[in-house]
Write a structure and sequence with these properties.
The complex is a heterodimer of chains A (118) and B (117).
Chain A: E1 3-5, E2 10-14, E3 19-21, E4 24-26, E5 32-39, E6 46-52, E7 59-61, E8 64-69, E9 74-79, E10 88-96, E11 106-108, E12 112-117
Chain B: E1 4-7, E2 10-13, E3 19-25, E4 31-38, E5 42-51, E6 54-57, E7 65-67, E8 73-78, E9 87-94, E10 107-108, E11 112-116
Parallel strand pairs in B: 2-11
Antiparallel strand pairs in B: 1-3, 3-8, 4-5, 4-9, 5-6, 7-8, 9-10, 9-11
Classes of the chains: A mainly beta (118), B mainly beta (117).
Chain lengths: 118, 117
């Protein structure tokens, strides 16, 4: 069965520090998709990134970067020079490609609460 | 373009009461989903729909029913609310890309906070 583990329940950093949020996943499928979502204190879920299992290139978007390593089944998220506005709960999620007979759904990790202090 | 909207934003029910949560999307997405979010549990899928007129069970379907009579709407019903259904409910939608088989991003509504006393 699919599973996503975010071992870090809470992280607290001081502004301008770099922080990495870990995500480890389990799946038997060769085709799958990984996502990161941000949930700020206001409660909505904001899409950050989607990667497919065939693309192991790391991605950078401003202060955000993602490191996808199939060998370790990890999809880690790094925030460089963190800011107070980065304070949120971050969720990693795994999806399954429907062509293999799987259901169309996301399996979420339990989230990591990041607090960035001024 | 409002994206995904949910009605109501907040609701308090007494045990045994019924209610329907409405999700609407204006992005012409094929797929729609209902999740619940509980502290320390992340989001768990309740039911989902891969198209108008079709629904399927997710991880935690018991106590809920859904309907997708129109492509843009996905309703979640609680026939007899229980305190265990106190949660934040999120609706999401995603497109179905041409050629089949590729899962696209799910876009979420703002959530409905439900309390069952």
């Amino acid at each position: 069965a699919q599973k996503v583990t975010q071992a870090q329940t809470e992280i607290s950093v001081v502004e301008k520090e770099d922080v990495t949020l870990d995500c480890v996943y389990e799946t038997r499928d060769t085709t799958y998709y990984l996502f990161w979502y941000k949930q700020p204190p206001s409660g909505e879920l904001v899409f950050l990134i989607r990667r497919n299992s065939f693309d192991e290139q790391n991605e950078i978007s401003g202060r955000y970067s993602w490191n996808f390593q199939k060998s370790t089944s990890s999809f880690n998220f790094t925030i460089t020079a963190s800011q107070v506005v980065d304070s949120a709960v971050y969720f990693c999620a795994l999806s399954e490609d429907w062509t293999q007979g799987g259901s169309e759904k996301l399996v979420f990790g339990k989230g990591t609460k990041l607090t960035v202090n001024p | 373009n409002a994206g995904v909207t949910q009605t109501p934003k907040f609701r308090v029910l007494k045990t045994g009461q019924s209610m329907t949560l409405l999700c609407a999307q204006d992005m012409n997405h094929e797929y729609m989903y209902w999740y619940r979010q509980d502290p320390g549990m992340g989001l768990r899928l309740i039911h989902y729909s891969v198209g108008e007129g079709t629904t399927a069970k997710g991880e935690v379907p018991d106590g809920y029913n859904v309907s997708r009579l129109k492509k843009q709407n996905f309703l979640l019903g609680l026939e007899s609310a229980a305190p265990s259904q106190t949660s934040v409910y999120f609706c999401a939608s995603s497109p179905r890309t041409s050629g089949g088989g590729r899962i696209d991003t799910q876009y979420f509504g703002p959530g409905t906070r439900l309390t069952v006393l």
